[in-house]
Amino acid sequence: MNLPSLDSANVRGKRVFLRCDFDAPIVDGQIQDDSRLVASISIIEYLLEQGATVIAAGHLGRPEKFDEKLSLFPIAKWFAQEFGTEAKQTHVEGLSGWKLKENLFILENLRFDPGEEANDSNFAHKLAYGVDIYINEAFASSHRLHASIVALPQLLPHYAGFHFQKEVKVLSSLVDSPKRPLSVIVGGAKIETKLPLISKMHRFADYVLVGGELAENDKELASVAHQKLIDKKSVLLVADLTTDKKDITKHSIQNFTQIVNNSATVVWNGPMGEFEKHFDLGTREIAEAISSSSAYSVVGGGDTVSFLSKEGLLSKFSFVSTGGGAMLQFLSGESLPGILALQS
């Protein structure tokens, strides 16, 4: 997949709008998992070394207006600590944010302005004011038709970030030439977005394993949809839930583990149960099975990555995607608006 490479861009002395994945879990002002933030460090360092001024931006949660609980101040403080400085409140070309260095700024939550989610061209022009170059390093948000993802790159010379390019390269290889058997494990919530994508997974995966909330609410629907597929190549296995409906059963864990152990490639998105409420047996057992297997393993989705990080298992996976819905959408064969915007 051809994406405009940052390697070919002259950024010295330029003002760069860097769209990042800042949507990290925060509880009482404390960041619970910084995986997405860490993914942005290398490109920020590169741009600063090249003499660029970096205006980094992203979103947190789904606010409809200003909400102090969803301010990016904790994110700005995290980056300030990483760069050995302080986050000082300021305005960047009329936009609220923080100054970390003379040439490094972080903007406030883009979704505080309704123009972001509306993909409003006026808001995009606001973001583009005084900027020379646009870079998308926010793969996890690139399935969204939002102003900073779609409208903004139409106004500026645009490039894909380093991690963005790696995401596309790794996920493309899973679609085009995976080592088989290839198993896709999907769990968690967000049923309305995941179920249609699961149906499309059947055309390139050998096994599709479904757990979590999906298993309870859509077991029959998923099975019927699978049976109707004419050109399917996968085996579908939907987990049974425990009597309290909070986790998958031990029998289902054993079935999933057996398939994982026989797989050459495993893709995982979504926990098997309500691990945040301590119903974590299924998620933990599947995590340990994948991390100890010889399979090439790819994991994505904020909840899943956060769990693995806390359990100290994240480094045992071959590739960690910053994307949840974006990863599934890409693997299902659907076009991502953020990728199309970079290619135009």
Short description:
The chain has 344 residues and is α/β, with parallel strands linked by helices. The protein has helices spanning 35-49, 73-82, 114-117, 121-128, 147-151, 162-176, 191-201, 213-228, 250-261, 281-292, 302-311, 325-331, 337-343, and strands at 15-19, 26-27, 30-31, 53-57, 88-92, 95-101, 104-107, 133-136, 158-160, 182-186, 207-210, 235-238, 265-269, 296-300, 319-320. The mean pLDDT is 91.
Question: What's the layout of helices and strands?
Answer:
Elements: E1 15-19, E2 26-27, E3 30-31, H1 35-49, E4 53-57, H2 73-82, E5 88-92, E6 95-101, E7 104-107, H3 114-117, H4 121-128, E8 133-136, H5 147-151, E9 158-160, H6 162-176, E10 182-186, H7 191-201, E11 207-210, H8 213-228, E12 235-238, H9 250-261, E13 265-269, H10 281-292, E14 296-300, H11 302-311, E15 319-320, H12 325-331, H13 337-343
Parallel strand pairs: 1-4, 1-8, 4-7, 8-9, 10-11, 10-13, 11-12, 13-14, 14-15
Antiparallel strand pairs: 2-3, 5-6, 6-7
Helix pairs in contact: 7-8, 7-12, 9-10
